[in-house]
Amino acid sequence: MDMIDIQHLTKDYGHGKGVFDITLTIKQGEVYGYLGPNGAGKSTTMRHLTGFSKPQSGRVCIKGLECWKEQKKIQEKLGYLPGEISFPDDMTGTAYLKLIAKMRKMKDFTYAQKLLNLFEINPNTSIKRMSKGMKQKIGIVLAFMHNPDILLLDEPTSGLDPLMQNRFIELVEQEKKKGKTIILSSHIFEEVEKTCDRIGMIRNGRLIKEVTIDELRHSQFKTYKIEFADISNLKQMKQVYPNAEYREDQNQVILSINDSEINNLISVLSKCKINFLKEEKHTLEEYFMQFYGGNEND
User: Fold this and answer.
1) Cα dihedral angle (82, 83, 88, 93), rounded to 10 degrees?
2) With contact defined as beta carbons under 8 Å apart, do 38 and 29 qualify?
3) In this predicted model, what pLDDT tens digit does every residue of 86-105 receive, in sequence order?
4) Which residues contact 114 (CB under 8 A, 6 or more apart)?
5) CA-angle at 108, arms to 106 and 109, nearest 5°
6) What percent helix, strand, coil does the chain show, rounded to 5?
7) Cβ contact 181:27 at 8 Å
8) Quick one: how far is CA 29 from the chain centroid?
9) What is the dihedral of CA 70, 135, 103, 51, to 10 degrees?
10) pTM above 0.85, yes or no
11) 112 - beta bridge partners?
């Protein structure tokens, strides 16, 4: 079942800003990584899903309900963590959490308390005195505490230390097992690799690429690190692969090729004496930079 259905969403703010003809669907229980540089259109897409923004054209639905027309119904099923969090300074964390719980008509605060313990939060502190990281953790609790079916998380671990980032990853994995549907926007590539089933890459307001994590892990592009026993073999490699990275002091080459070129590499190496050959894993960040590296949106 498609929990989220976006068809040809367009919102043009002028000067190339906005989102243009975005079409994507997300199934129940799926974690979808939404990646792109600042200003690419990630937050704009999420604001349409929350019903805060009306499409110029296209359709945005959650559970078959149009987000703009059925905003109140949808927000009952939704947990949202915006990229920029703003809280009232004149309240404690506890008072604000209780206020939101009352507005959501929550009868049980047990899960909220469990989340507070997980992220080691003392909510009795004045929000005005909280650090950025502490406010971010309060925002995470607010998004998850009412046990929503769908979670929209815009840069959720911004300002968190590595320990809390890992705890957030554990939380997402637990929610996924419960069948929750999650959109996760993040610049932390390890976070996306560990939690997401699919990734959508957005650039200048347009969805330019979708890929599953499995497809990413079995990408046809491979990198090999090879160390030769003799410098003459290294010189031989330079003639065949002049654009590779060479470390002459170690008799090593780092070479990236497509799978279709592997037979040629093996043929060249069969005439050499090598100490080792190791495949280097490509990270999501390296894959991502193939689309964004060296351009104005770095």
Assistant:
1) 80
2) no
3) 899 899 999 999 999 999 99
4) none
5) 95
6) 40, 30, 30
7) yes
8) 16
9) -10
10) no
11) none
